[in-house]
Amino acid sequence: xxxxxxxxxxxxxxxxxxxxxxxxxxxxxxxxxxxxxxxxxxxxxxxxxxxxxxxxxxxxxxxxxxxxxxxxxxxxxxxxxxxxxxxxxxxxxxxxxxxxxxxxxxxxxxxxxxxxxxxxxxxxxxxxxxxxxxxxxxxxxxxxxxxxxxxxxxxxxxxxxxxxxxxxxxxxxxxxxxxxxxxxxxxxxxxxxxxxxxxxxxxxxxxxxxxxxxxxxxxxxxxxxxxxxxxxxxxxxxxxxxxxxxxxxxxxxxxxxxxxxxxxxxxxxxxxxxxxx
Length: 277
Prior knowledge:
Family: Belongs to the universal stress protein A family.
Largest sheet: 10 strands, mixed
Strand content: 15-25%
Domain UspA: 2-144
CATH architecture of the largest domain: 3-Layer(aba) Sandwich
CATH topology of the largest domain: Rossmann fold
Protein name: Universal stress protein
């Protein structure tokens, strides 16, 4: 089945890097890639007064850049399975993305974000955070700046087994796994001596849901902040993509709350797929 992939862009190197990752990730799949630009997102200004003529010029410039970006993608990517389209809007970024997801039946949003060079953590950009928090109908794959594509053979799936995952929530994980016959590695940070009966049941259910996939379950002692432990797990086991479900009161939801996001880092080394509950 043909995939529809949305690539929001501000025409930066960071956004282009995420697009290149997307093209390589889906190299063997039939896809339509939609480059999306929201003028109000990428052309903000500190001027208190601008003429309508200047606004029109800036919009025309953005449209031209978007068309040029499509042409550039077609030149560097000669994959016959891939088609490129553009979406331009002067509405807000979130409104533009929400509309595009519905109108074009988008399966996945892929965005770039810059990491802190030489550090073990990065702070997600404000636009990326807003998209992950507000877009409820589509998973979002966040790609670190200048990330070199590696086949995602090992996929980490942190969970505390506090809830049951629906088939719909697990579908993006399964589809990602099927691209390269990857191994799914659920990992739980133990905050107590043993799992409760409900947690044991949820773990057994997850095992059943993933029985047709190469899967190994892992447990870690509670020795540091969750961000640090997940980072350690990723580095020690050579994880290629991190996947989480963003549900109410989840680790991701708490991570993205201000001012936590200003103080807590997250792993900058690999792409991060966030699945809405």
